[in-house]
Write a structure and sequence with these properties.
The protein has 325 residues and is of the alpha/beta class. The chain has helices at residues 20-24, 31-38, 51-66, 90-98, 114-127, 151-154, 216-238, 255-265, 276-279, 286-296; strands spanning 3-12, 17-19, 42-44, 75-79, 104-108, 133-140, 160-169, 175-182, 190-191, 213-214, 247-250, 305-312, 316-323.
């Protein structure tokens, strides 16, 4: 049976570091206030780079890790809510930059869940036999859609990109089980509007700048519930126990969310891999960056089982359980 395995990982973050002290010069906040509520110490913020630039760098590194040439990539999926433009897609720009002339390319929008959605989508293309090698990238320049006067949101986010290459295998397990959920009834909890309606029949005269707004407590509750339910579901589907899992890599949004979920699931906090103290919430990029850190840090061994679990605007959530090759 055809399986999708992760054969390479890559990540990229901008050089520019914004610390909590830097933020305290912009809004009424402090290092202690931010760290105690979120666990975040610093984040990376672009100065000139576009989302496609970050995506390209992460994708290139994932291909090198997988020992694949650009012409061998069949499909590029880029998960993002901060594209360079409505069109062309970030994936098409990356295809051109990489020289992946044989690849189909499209963007996927599922907010912070986008990387997991992308992996699940890629695995289906591989399992059906349509494609052999798929590059999945989560990339964001969230800084361009933040209200830098709103301390409840601007302290949380950072820019970056994470990527994986999924490759076909006839023998190895790879992506074992997955679970995706969406709840549009909660769409107002986390929002960033697009351009307003303006045409010959409805002319908008409002000044407009897209920016994130969030109902913090509601998102907090949704996130904890999503993490706990997805972990239980995956373990049941795979007929495994939590002791069989080496690491859980959650979306890196808030340390309190992860700790609450760990307590509810009665899972040791050490099993949850986190790096949000260094990068903040990079939306669709966060799990990819964390997975690449684990891989490059030689913390993963053949046969290790991992759970990737995410939640985001929409509201969306999803998780995959995989065996590391």
């Amino acid at each position: 049976m055809r399986q999708a395995i992760i054969s390479g990982t890559g990540s990229y973050v901008p050089d520019n570091v914004m610390t909590n002290e830097d933020l305290a010069k912009l809004v009424d906040t402090s290092d202690e206030w931010i760290e105690s509520r979120t666990g975040i110490k610093e984040r990376r913020i672009v100065t000139k780079e576009l989302t496609s630039d970050l995506a390209y760098e992460a994708g290139k590194r994932a291909m090198i890790s997988a020992n694949l040439q650009a012409k061998e990539i069949d499909l590029i999926i880029c998960a993002t809510i901060t594209p360079d433009s409505f069109m062309p897609s970030v994936a098409c720009i990356v295809q051109d930059k990489l020289g992946a002339v044989n690849a189909v390319a499209f963007d996927l929008t599922a907010a912070c869940s986008g990387f997991v959605y992308g992996i699940v989508t890629a695995s289906q293309y591989i399992q059906t036999g349509m494609y052999q090698n798929v590059l999945v990238i989560g990339a964001e320049t969230i800084s361009k859609i933040l209200d830098w006067e709103d301390r409840s949101t601007c302290v949380l986010f950072g820019d970056g990109a994470g990527a994986v290459v999924l490759t076909v295998s006839e023998k190895k397990k790879g992506i074992m089980v997955a679970n995706l959920l969406s709840d549009g009834s909660k769409q107002s909890q986390l929002v960033c509007p697009a351009v307003p309606l303006s045409n010959p029949y409805n002319k908008s005269v409002e000044s407009f700048r897209p920016k994130i707004t969030m109902q913090g407590q509601e998102v907090f509750k949704f996130a904890i519930r999503s993490i706990t339910e997805h972990i239980k579901t995956l373990l049941q589907k795979a007929d495994l126990n939590i002791e069989d899992i080496k690491y859980i890599i959650p979306h890196q949004a808030n340390q309190r969310i992860i700790e609450h979920a760990a307590n509810l699931c009665k899972i040791p906090k050490e099993k949850f891999y986190t790096n949000l103290m260094n990068y903040g919430n990079t939306s669709a990029a966060s799990i990819g960056i964390a997975l690449d850190e684990l891989a490059k840090g030689n913390k993963l061994e053949h046969g290790d089982k991992l759970i990737l679990v995410a939640f985001g605007g929409g509201m969306t959530s999803g998780a995959v359980l995989l065996e590391w090759d």
